[in-house]
Each structure stands twice: as structure tokens, then as C-alpha cells.
Design goal:
Chain lengths: 114, 107
């Protein structure tokens, strides 16, 4: 079955620790995206990648880092510099890197930092 | 003011009722997505449309580009339709999301 997997579903960390969220897709999509979702707000774009070894900052990239060493994988690291890291994180991919059409979403990871 | 506004924010209905969720946007767009987010958090794309109307089962989506408005209708609603419905507009190379409409359908 083709799709996007994110792991783990729930993640707990202490303040000051970096944490890496996994996102893998077997859809052969070129473009991948990371979003953050907070209560009462729409999804906000953190980073996106249109091709392997290249990525761009989204609207709220501060305190986050990404890598795109393989087409299938786009891990997101939440660093200790991120002021409010507790949120629901969604990864998405799309076949066409030139546009945001037809984005497929993963199941999400809920990160809690205390 | 948000670029994408949804109404209502919360909606409750009895099983069988006809549901309408509205989305208004202020930016020029190439297309609009309607997405469904279930309590577990995963998001599924329901429709992508750039003009007119699309229908899939009990779901109907319409868009009026001139008025910058879209509606999602659910006919004969069912408790399994309970979810958050999110409107997202495609502005060149990125999606701009509304805050969602939480729908609860009671038996």
C-alpha cells in the first residue's frame, strides 16, 4: 500500500532537548512538506522540499531544521530554539513539485514538551 | 484578518440533516481543497476544485471564483461524518489553510 508514514504518533520530550520526527513516503512523490497545527489555527508551513538535497523555509521555520537525503524521507528536527514546540505535526507529499496540488497527508505526530 | 475564513467554527447536527460548511478567501487562487481531519489527526483530501461543482457520494463541493467563496455540503449526514473539515486554497506554490469547522453528527 502506498502512503505516508509518520512515527511515532505520540512523542514526549523534556524542554531543552532536540527531537526528530520521522516522515517516510513510498508514493514516489518529489515534493514533501512539514506543517504544524495548533488549536484554533490553520495548518502552518514549516519547511518544504521540492527535490532531493534541496529544501526551503516555510512561514514558521525558526527553531526547526530538515534534511532531504533520500526521496522517500524528510525528517524534521525540533530544536531547543523553538519556543513553543508542543503541537501536532503533519507531513505531506505531492507528485508535482511546482505546485501544491494534490497533497497527501501522513497521520501526524503529537509532540509534547514539558 | 485571515486569508481563508471558514464558517461556522462548530456545527452539531442530527443524523440525516443536510450540512453546509462555508469557506471565503481573500487571495487570488488557482484551486481550492476541501480536507477532512478525523479525531486521530490524519487528514484526507475530499475535493480539489477550481470551478463549478464536484460530487462524491453524499458530499458536494461548489466554488464561485468571482465571489471567492466555496461551500461543502453533506447530504443525509451520518455520525461517521463527524470530523473537522478544512478548506485550503492554493496560492501559486503553497496551501493556505482555514482554521477548520468541527462537525458532530448525533444519532
Amino acid at each position: 500500500d502506498g502512503g505516508i508514514t509518520q512515527s511515532p504518533k505520540y512523542l514526549f520530550r523534556k524542554e531543552g532537548q532536540n527531537v526528530t520526527l520521522s516522515c517516510e513516503q513510498n508514493l514516489n512523490h518529489d515534493a514533501m512538506y512539514w506543517y504544524r497545527q495548533d488549536p484554533g489555527q490553520g495548518l502552518r508551513l514549516i519547511y518544504y522540499s521540492q527535490i532531493v538535497n534541496d529544501f526551503q523555509k516555510g512561514d514558521i521555520a525558526e527553531g526547526y531544521s530538515v534534511s532531504r537525503e533520500k526521496k522517500e524521507s524528510f525528517p524534521l528536527t525540533v530544536t531547543s530554539a523553538q519556543k513553543n514546540p508542543t503541537a501536532f505535526y503533519l507531513c505531506a507529499s505531492s507528485i508535482d513539485p511546482r505546485s501544491a496540488y494534490e497533497q497527501y497527508f501522513g497521520p501526524g505526530t503529537r509532540l509534547t514538551v514539558t | 484578518k485571515n486569508e481563508v475564513e471558514q464558517s461556522p467554527q462548530n456545527l452539531t447536527a442530527q443524523e440525516g440533516e443536510f450540512i453546509t460548511i462555508n469557506c471565503s478567501y481573500s487571495v487570488g487562487i488557482s484551486a481550492l481543497h476541501w480536507l477532512q481531519q478525523h479525531p486521530g489527526g490524519g487528514i484526507v483530501s475530499l475535493f480539489m476544485l477550481s470551478s463549478g461543482k464536484k460530487k462524491h457520494g453524499r458530499l458536494i463541493a461548489t466554488i464561485n471564483i468571482q465571489e471567492k467563496h466555496s461551500s461543502l455540503h453533506i447530504t443525509a449526514s451520518h455520525p461517521r461524518d463527524s470530523a473537522v473539515y478544512i478548506c485550503a486554497v492554493i496560492d501559486t506554490d503553497k496551501l493556505i489553510f482555514g482554521t477548520g469547522t468541527r462537525l458532530q453528527v448525533f444519532p
